[in-house]
Fold this protein.
Amino acid sequence: MREDDVFEYPDPATYRVRIWTPPVIENYSWAVDEYEVTDVQDVRDALAWAENEAAGRPMEFFVKWFETQITSKFEFISTPQMTKLFGLAPKED
């Protein structure tokens, strides 16, 4: 990969964090809280926030990016996408 092939967005990255909480009643579903983390310097700060918030609970960690497309009328549209960096949702029994 050439250096010219690398692009950095000028805006700070946005991260999505899903934190899972086990059911309090047997045979019920896990609960999930979702957060968008934006006010951080870099991914290390976002990850530190997420790990602190999760406090040992299962967690999924994503980065948000935009896919730009050109419509048939030559208009640019940006569609938000999420790429999971790590983590797993808990398995339901």
The beta strands are 14-21, 31-37, 59-70, 76-87. The chain has one domain: 14-87. The CA atoms of residues 21 and 78 lie 33 Å apart.
